[in-house]
Design brief:
Chain lengths: 372, 326
C-alpha cells in the first residue's frame, strides 16, 4: 500500500523512516510551495484555518504522485485540528478519489496502526518496531535541535543563506541515514561544517526574539514566509518554543524533562489564563511569560486567521507585554497573506528593538529578571 | 550645496525630497505612482534636478515605501528602510517630543508610539483599506467632488450622517443608501470622515495608548475633515507638520544622511543621469528547486545589474551589484 501523510516541518523524515521500516511504500508529499497552498485552498472551506488548506494541498499532490492511503492524526478539544481528518475525508470522497484516510485518534491509535499493518501484509516484530521508533524519533529530534541551533546562531553566519542551505543538506543526509552510525556521521560532519562558517560571537550580545504561536504555523516555515530565517538575517538570535519532536515527547512518550518544563509553563500561564483553551493557546501565553522573564528583547506570535486558541492568547498578550515592558508582534496568516507587508513589519519590529536596546528601554526588566 | 535625497515609493504616490545639511527641506515632489515606480522616479528625479540649483552634491540617498527594493537598485540607495522607521524618524525631526504618530497613506495606515524619542510600539492596518487614501479618492470621485475639496466640504456640514465605516464595501453601500434617503452631501462627507477615524481608532490603534503630542501625517492629513474628526474623537490637539505629505521621503533622506555623512561614508548614489537611462524590471519563476521563487531582475540599458527575490541566493549573490540593506 502506498501511503502518505501531511507535512509538519522535519517530522516527515521520521515518519518516512518508520513507515518504510514496517513495510509500507511511502509517498512523501512534495515540499510545500505556493502551488500546494493554492491547490489546497481551492478544495477547502473558505474560513477554515490555513493548516487545513495546506494539508489538503499535501494530500492532493501526494495522491497525484501515487498515494493510496493517508495517515492523519485526530484529536479532541476546542482546536479544529481534531476534526480536520473527518472533513478532509469527506472532501476527498466528494472529489471522487478512492484514497483511504487512516485517522489515529487517542483511543484507537494502536488498533488503527495494526489494522493498517495487517492490510499491508506487514509482519513486524515488537523489538524491531521499538528500534524503528527510536531511530525515527532520533532523526527528527536531531533535525529539530539543528534547526533550533541555526535559528539561534544564524545572525553570525559568514555567508548570508549558509545556515538555510546547511539545514536543507542535513535533512537530505538524515533522510538517507539508515542506522545509528550513519546518523552519527551526519551529525559530526554538519557540526564541523557549521563551526567553520560562523563568525565568532560579538562582544555585544545580539537581540533575542522568541517566536510563539500555533504549532503548525510555527513549525512549517514555508507557510510563515520563513520568519525565523528572516529575523536571523536581520541580525536577531531566534528561539522558537515548539518543535515536532517536542510534541511527540510531550504527548506520546513519557519524557520527564518535557513534562517538567510544561509544568513551569503552566505555572506562568495560570495567572493570565486559568484553563486550557485548545491548540497551543495555553503554551503561547506561558512561553511569552517565560521569554519575558528571561530578558528577551521582543516576541513574535504566529497564528492562522480564525484560530480560536491563538486569538484568546493574542488578546492576553498586551497585558503581559505591558507588565514586562516587552514588545509583542502578532502576525496572522492565511493563503492571501502578502510578503511585502510582512517584511515591512518584521524590519520595523527589529529596528524598534534595536533602538530600544540602544536607549536602554526595558533594561530595568532585564535587570529584574536576572535576579528572578 | 550638499544635499541628501529621500524617495518614498508608495502604492498611490511617489514622493521625493531633497534636504540640506541642517535637515531642512530644500525641494519636494508629490507624484502619482500609477503602477509604474521606475518611470515615476525617473520623472521625479529630472523634475527635482530642475528645481535645485546647479552646484549640488548628493551626499546620500535613502528609499522607503512598498517599492523600496526596486528603486533602491535604480538609484543605488545608501539606505533602504521600511516605512515605519522612516515615518518615525521624520516625525521626530519635526517634533522631538512626539509620542504618537498617526500616518494614513494611499493603501495603508499606521500608528507609531514613541517614548523619549524611541519607537516603542507600532501597528499597521491588517484587514481592510477602509479609511485610507485610495478609498477616499474613490468616494470623492463617486460624489463628484475633487479630492482636495473633500475635507472642506465636511466642515460645511451642520451635523454628521452616520456611516458604517467597518469595511470599505459596506461604507460605500451605506453612503449610497444615505444619499438616496436625501441626506445632504456635506453631512455624508462629514459622516464618512468620522467613520474612518472611528475605524482607525478601533482597528489600527486598538489597544494603544494615544498620548500627546500627536503628529498626523501622510497624504490623508491634507483632509481637514479627517483632521477635525481626529481632534474631536481624541479630545486632543493633533499637529499636522508642514511637509505632512512627504514625511516618508523626509525620513528616508534623514536616514540616508545618518548612513553616509554621520559615518563618513561616501554615497553610492548613481547620479541624476539615471533619469534618462533605459531601465526595466523583469521577473521570472526560478525552477531551480521546489520553492519556485519569483526572481526579479533589474536591467539598465539591457544590462542586468541586480537580481532579488530568491530564497537561496542563487541569483541575488550572482549579481554584480548588491544593495545596502541596513
Amino acid at each position: 500500500m502506498r501511503v502518505t501523510f501531511p507535512h509538519l516541518g522535519m517530522v516527515w523524515v521520521g515518519v518516512k523512516h518508520l513507515l518504510e521500516g514496517v513495510g509500507f511504500e511511502v509517498v512523501v508529499p512534495p515540499p510545500i510551495t505556493k502551488a500546494t497552498i493554492e491547490l489546497g485552498a481551492k478544495y477547502s472551506p473558505e474560513f477554515i484555518c490555513l493548516p487545513f488548506k495546506v494539508m489538503m494541498g499535501n494530500y492532493l499532490q501526494a495522491i497525484e504522485a501515487g498515494a493510496e492511503a493517508i495517515f492523519m492524526l485526530g484529536g479532541v478539544g476546542p482546536c479544529r485540528l481534531g476534526y480536520y481528518a473527518e472533513v478532509q475525508r469527506e472532501i476527498l470522497a466528494d472529489l471522487g478519489l478512492p484514497t483511504r484516510m487512516i485517522v489515529l485518534e487517542r483511543n484507537n491509535f494502536a488498533r488503527e496502526i495494526f489494522t493498517a499493518l495487517k492490510a499491508n501484509g506487514s509482519n513486524v516484530r515488537w523489538h524491531k518496531l521499538l528500534s524503528l521508533i527510536r531511530l525515527s524519533l532520533a532523526k527528527v529530534t536531531y533535525l529539530d535541535n539543528l534547526e533550533a541551533l541555526l535559528l539561534r546562531e544564524r545572525y553570525r553566519e559568514k555567508q548570508p543563506g549558509y545556515c538555510s542551505k546547511l539545514l536543507a543538506q542535513a535533512v537530505q543526509a538524515v533522510d538517507k541515514a539508515q542506522s545509528w552510525s550513519e546518523l552519527g556521521q551526519v551529525k559530526t560532519r554538519v557540526s564541523a561544517q557549521l563551526k567553520a562558517e560562523l563568525l565568532p560571537p560579538p562582544a555585544q550580545p545580539p537581540l533575542r526574539v522568541g517566536i510563539v504561536g500555533e504549532i503548525y504555523m510555527l513549525i512549517e516555515s514555508s507557510v510563515n514566509f520563513f520568519i525565523g530565517e528572516r529575523l536571523g538575517e536581520l541580525g536577531v538570535s531566534v528561539t522558537r518554543n515548539l518543535y515536532g519532536s517536542n510534541w511527540v515527547r510531550e504527548h506520546l512518550l513519557p519524557d520527564w524533562r518535557v513534562k517538567h518544563q510544561m509544568r513551569r509553563i503552566a505555572r506562568y500561564c495560570r495567572p493570565y489564563l486559568p484553563q486550557r483553551v485548545g491548540g497551543h493557546g495555553y503554551e503561547t501565553v506561558g512561553y511569552v511569560v517565560d521569554y519575558a522573564k528571561k530578558g528577551y528583547d521582543g516576541l513574535v506570535q504566529v497564528l492562522p486567521l480564525t484560530c480560536m486558541p491563538e486569538i484568546i492568547a493574542e488578546s492576553i498578550l498586551p497585558t503581559i507585554s505591558k507588565q514586562y515592558d516587552i514588545p509583542v508582534l502578532a502576525l496572522t496568516f492565511d493563503e492571501h497573506a502578502g510578503e511585502t507587508g510582512l517584511v515591512t513589519r518584521l524590519e520595523a519590529f527589529v529596528d524598534m528593538l534595536r533602538e530600544r536596546r540602544r536607549h536602554g528601554v526595558g533594561r530595568e526588566r532585564v535587570a529584574l529578571s536576572v535576579g528572578d | 550645496m550638499r544635499l541628501a535625497l529621500g524617495i518614498d515609493v508608495g502604492s498611490v504616490s511617489t514622493n521625493l525630497v531633497a534636504i540640506n545639511e541642517s535637515g531642512q527641506v530644500q525641494s519636494k515632489l508629490y507624484l502619482r505612482t500609477q503602477g509604474n515606480p521606475i518611470a515615476v522616479v525617473q520623472k521625479g528625479l529630472s523634475q527635482l534636478k530642475a528645481q535645485l540649483p546647479e552646484d549640488i552634491t548628493v551626499v546620500g540617498c535613502g528609499v522607503t515605501g512598498s517599492g523600496r527594493q526596486l528603486v533602491a537598485h535604480l538609484v543605488q540607495a545608501d539606505c533602504v528602510k521600511n516605512e515605519i522607521t522612516a515615518h518615525a524618524m521624520a516625525a521626530l525631526a519635526v517634533n522631538p517630543k512626539v509620542r504618537t504618530v498617526i500616518e494614513i497613506g494611499g493603501q495603508d495606515s499606521k500608528i507609531i508610539i514613541l517614548r523619549d524619542g524611541v519607537v516603542v510600539d507600532f501597528a499597521m492596518n491588517t484587514i481592510c483599506a477602509a479609511g485610507t487614501g485610495s478609498f477616499l479618492d474613490r468616494q470623492a470621485a463617486r460624489l463628484g467632488v475633487d479630492i482636495s475639496e473633500l475635507g472642506a466640504l465636511a466642515l460645511e456640514a451642520k451635523q454628521a450622517t452616520r456611516i458604517a465605516g467597518r469595511c470599505a464595501v459596506f461604507a460605500e453601500s451605506d453612503m449610497v443608501h444615505k444619499q438616496q434617503m436625501g441626506h445632504p452631501i456635506p453631512d455624508i462627507v462629514r459622516g464618512l470622515c468620522e467613520a474612518l477615524v472611528r475605524n482607525y481608532l478601533n482597528n489600527v490603534a486598538k489597544g494603544k495608548t494615544i498620548e500627546p503630542p500627536i503628529v498626523f501625517q501622510g497624504g490623508v492629513a491634507a483632509n481637514v475633515g479627517i483632521r477635525k474628526a481626529f481632534q474631536e474623537a481624541l479630545q486632543q490637539e493633533v499637529e499636522v507638520p508642514e511637509h505632512y505629505d512627504v514625511m516618508g521621503a523626509l525620513g528616508a533622506a534623514l536616514l540616508a544622511e545618518r548612513a553616509t555623512v554621520a559615518l563618513n561614508q561616501p554615497s553610492r548614489w548613481r547620479g541624476f543621469s539615471i533619469a534618462h537611462a533605459d531601465c526595466q524590471a523583469v521577473s521570472h519563476d526560478c525552477d531551480g528547486c521546489a520553492n519556485h521563487c519569483e526572481v526579479m531582475e533589474f536591467r539598465i540599458a539591457q544590462q542586468s545589474v541586480a537580481f532579488w527575490g530568491d530564497r537561496c541566493g542563487k541569483w541575488s549573490q550572482s549579481s554584480s551589484v548588491g544593495v545596502a540593506n541596513n
